[in-house]
Amino acid sequence: MTRRWSIAGQLFALQVLVVSLLVAGGTAGAVLLARADARDAASEKVLAVAYTVANAPFVAQALRSPDPTSRLQPYAEATRLATETDFVVVMAPDRTRYTHPTQALIHKQFSGTIDAALAGGEVVEEFTGSLGESVRAVVPVRDDGNQIVGLVSVGITTETINRKLLHQAPTVATATAAALLLAAAGAWLLSRRLRRQTHGLGPAEMTRMYEYYDAVLHSVREGLVVVDRDGRVALVNDEGRRLLDLPDGGVTDRQVTELDLPPAVGELLASGRPAADEPVLAGTRVLVANQQVTRFDGRPLGTVLTLRDHTELRALTGELDSVRGLTEALQAQAHEAANRLHTVLTLVELGRSDEAVRLATAELALAQQLTDQVVGAVTEPALAALLLGKSAQASERGVELVIDEDSRLDGEPLPSRDLLTVVGNLVDNALEAVAGTDPPRKVTVLVRSSAEEVLIRVTDTGPGLPADHVADAFRRGWSTKQREGRGLGLALVGQVIERYGGRYEVASGPGAAITVWLPVLKRHSS
């Protein structure tokens, strides 16, 4: 299987290629520039040497002598060697050479341009002559009367110029190699860092991972909030935004404390502590939160919080608990009824019929009295059934449940589920409060409606609710019972109050009295 290059490897190779091309181009440019500079320097040098020779009085005098070569050749060669040029040619105006490094070319015609020099100017050119291509200068020689009596040409061959450039090649090569090594080292360090950050993945793998992860994060039905080690929000998926009522944009890269989060969720994220199936309240929702610290190679990266919506499940669980409690109470009452029935039958068998009738009548009257009181005061069937069931539960726990004689609820001023949530949870909390206390253990329920609102008051003889915990009990699911999964009863009541725009009041000492006022919604009015 062909091994795919990682992003870091591809970047390293690309950087090395680009740097190599840049260094190669720079080196070529430097060589061309050095070559041009060498030619310019050679042009300046030959021109300066030519003027020096032409302006020497000895040269003009020698040109008038019968044998100019014998006098000028030694001088020309000495000058050539001293100035490190390749030829110094002194000639007559008709191009006849009087000096030349090659003896056979003396008295031969000079090849090159001389017109500008004959006119009193100068010539600087690249020309291929008897010694090959060269950079040469031609200047006039004047006598005392300023007449042009000859010409001087000085040149340096291109081979000599290139040879001098080659002497600089090791320096250029060293600089080039150093630049390549430095660039390669920088590219390697950068690719190494990138490899650590991308975990050696290739572009296709990272693209596929992003597509899969993005699809999963948007499709899962759990809210997900990722916070980095600095307390900034790194990621919130769609379900998390929905559950926490967060906007679509402007959430990531912000501190947790800057977001408008529900208090319980904000506290959990800010603390960074681990949490397992912890119930929290978010507006009108009951959420189950799990939070863990994420690590990679032993280094903490931040925290991941997952949220599941348990609002409906909690409501159904509450109803199931009520049904289960009612079932257990009915089973106990059936057991008690069987015992009483056996007692009545035994009395009849013993011939004590009058006592049997009185016992049976008293039991029926007591049960009928409570039923008549509840049904007469509350015409809403679900709430009446709830109160009868709670009465059975209270009796099983040794608690007296009393329906206040002022109770009156006609029709359905509010949805049955909300009424059951408020009344059921208030009664459950009251029963929990008086359980285990000294007698008398009593819970009183008052449910009364008017055209504008429904009043619900539950009073108990328990220890009462501390004043400094009232707000927490309604908003955060506070509980005096240190057991997992408790403390949501009053919180659910608080959600209903908030949703309807109602109010509540808590009075303590002795016992506790919780009063709730809920406005009657027009769509539920009769």
From TrEMBL:
Keywords: ATP-binding, Cell membrane, Kinase, Membrane, Nucleotide-binding, Phosphoprotein, Transferase, Transmembrane, Transmembrane helix, Two-component regulatory system
Major localisation: membrane
Domain Histidine kinase: 304-522
Gene3D superfamilies xref list: Histidine kinase-like ATPase, C-terminal domain, PAS domain
Pfam family, one: sCache_3_2
Single GO term (MF): ATP binding
Statement: the UniProt record of this protein carries the keyword Oxidoreductase: no
A GO CC term attached to the entry: plasma membrane
Topology relative to the membrane: Multi-pass membrane protein
Presence of the UniProt keyword Transferase in the record: yes
Protein name, per record: histidine kinase
Organism encoding this protein: Phytohabitans rumicis
